[in-house]
């Protein structure tokens, strides 16, 4: 992608508030959330407690459902908000938990709570679960990670299973032949956008910025970073598939660049001897190659979204959406009708 196009897209993202007319309700919501987060007199724990009280009430309401197109199961907004709050701290620390709780607290009415859940599903959870097939139909490149693929980034071994790439396995190894592929941690459907979908991308990345704790600079540079080694790893084909489907994720440990292999449920997504294995990312390239290791913020967000989709049952809907382009189009058209469009863009 050319530098001029990258600059143009970033400019469109950063100047979005000048080109898109936001309703007063959106600006009011943004301001309420921002001011709440800045209030030093109220702790994050207090906001979390208040948010949970709101969700306890929402769980009892019949009109808590997010309506979706025909043949797609409606979503329980209370479950979506609940698991977003439960996983916020692991995704981006206390600040992310505070953002999530404050956003829920800023929605006192049931319809506002449902719209908030719809927004997070539409702009964060669904784009993160887009399949490679849908990426192709949407105009995204769905090839394997182009940068990581060309280097001995992980010593020519799958970082999860430890298996050697067939062309580089030691002569003494009796391991079956496998071919490693480069896997994106965050999908290109999330990280890359065209001018036509700049509004959608801006909403997605505004949510990600506050939910993951990523810096503003990282967000602004995501069009480049999406194909950077910091957003990739080398995996065995089957492991790549289940990681891409958000069935397997990496849980961060207290040690830098060290993670534990986890799965969202006992679905036998990977062999039992791989589950709970501790892995460490190292740069096995030549000393002259300054290649960044996978970004812990990207890995933490992937892990959080994996669990959110599973715990909220939203993953099943994402699967249905991926298999039917007409439904995807119907659901995408709902985006413009959302009550809350771009959280915190005007105040970030």
Write the layout of secondary structure elements.
Blueprint: H1 3-14, H2 16-19, H3 24-38, H4 44-58, E1 65-66, E2 75-76, H5 77-105, H6 110-128, H7 132-137, E3 181-184, H8 188-191, H9 198-212, H10 216-220, H11 222-225, E4 232-235, H12 237-244, E5 248-252, E6 258-263, E7 278-280, H13 296-312, H14 314-323, H15 325-333
Antiparallel strand pairs: 1-2, 3-4, 5-6, 6-7
Helix pairs in contact: 1-9, 3-5, 4-5, 5-6, 5-13, 6-9, 14-15
Strand order of the largest sheet: 5-6-7
Note the run of SSEs as H and E.
HHHHEEHHHEHHHHEHEEEHHH
Mean pLDDT: 75
CA(first)-CA(last) distance: 28 Å
Overall, the morphology is elongated
Using only CA atoms, what is the Rg?
20 Å
Task: Report low-confidence residues grouped into runs of 5 or more.
Answer: 1-23, 132-144, 319-348
* Biggest β-sheet strands, sense, barrel: 3 strands, antiparallel
SS strand fraction: 5-15%
How many individual domains? Answer: 1
Determine the number of helices (DSSP H or I, runs of at least 4 residues): 15
Structural class: mainly alpha
Number of strands: 7
Binned, the helix content reads 40-55%
Folded structure, characterized:
- This protein is mainly alpha-helical and 348 residues long.
- The protein has one domain.
- The chain is built from 15 helices and seven strands.
- The protein has a three-stranded antiparallel β-sheet with strand order 5-6-7. It has a two-stranded antiparallel ribbon with strand order 1-2. A two-stranded antiparallel ribbon has the order 3-4.
- The longest helix has 29 residues, at 77-105.
- The radius of gyration is 20 Å and the shape is elongated.
- It starts with a helix and ends in a 15-residue tail after the last helix.
């Amino acid at each position: 992608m050319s530098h001029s196009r990258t600059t143009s897209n970033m400019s469109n993202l950063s100047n979005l508030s000048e080109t898109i007319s936001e309703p007063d309700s959106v600006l009011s919501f943004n301001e309420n959330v921002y001011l709440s987060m800045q209030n030093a007199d109220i702790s994050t724990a207090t906001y979390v407690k208040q948010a949970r009280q709101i969700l306890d009430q929402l769980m009892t309401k019949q009109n808590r459902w997010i309506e979706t197109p025909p043949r797609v199961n409606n979503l329980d907004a209370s479950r979506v908000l609940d698991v977003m709050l439960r996983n916020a701290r692991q995704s981006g620390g206390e600040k992310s938990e505070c953002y999530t709780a404050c956003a829920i607290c800023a929605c006192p009415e049931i319809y506002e709570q449902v719209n908030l859940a719809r927004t997070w599903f539409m702009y964060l959870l669904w784009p993160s679960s887009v399949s490679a097939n849908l990426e192709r139909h949407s105009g995204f490149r769905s090839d394997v990670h182009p940068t990581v693929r060309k280097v001995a980034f992980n010593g020519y071994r799958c970082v999860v299973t430890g298996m050697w790439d067939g062309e580089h396995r030691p002569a003494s190894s009796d391991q079956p032949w496998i071919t490693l592929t480069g896997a994106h941690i965050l999908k290109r459907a999330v990280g890359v956008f065209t001018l036509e979908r700049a509004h959608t991308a801006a909403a997605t990345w505004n949510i990600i910025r506050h939910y993951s704790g990523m810096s503003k600079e990282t967000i602004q540079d995501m069009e480049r970073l999406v194909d950077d080694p910091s957003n990739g790893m080398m995996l065995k084909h089957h492991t790549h598939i289940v990681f891409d489907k958000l069935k397997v994720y990496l849980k961060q440990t207290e040690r830098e660049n060290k993670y534990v292999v986890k799965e969202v449920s006992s679905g036998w997504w990977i062999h039992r001897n791989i589950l709970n294995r501790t892995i460490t990312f190292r740069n096995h390239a030549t000393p002259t190659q300054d290649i960044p290791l996978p970004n812990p913020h990207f890995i933490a967000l992937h892990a959080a979204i994996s669990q959110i989709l599973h715990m909220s049952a939203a993953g099943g809907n994402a699967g249905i959406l991926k298999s039917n382009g007409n439904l995807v189009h119907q659901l995408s058209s709902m985006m413009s009708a959302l009550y809350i469009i771009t959280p915190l863009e005007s105040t970030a």
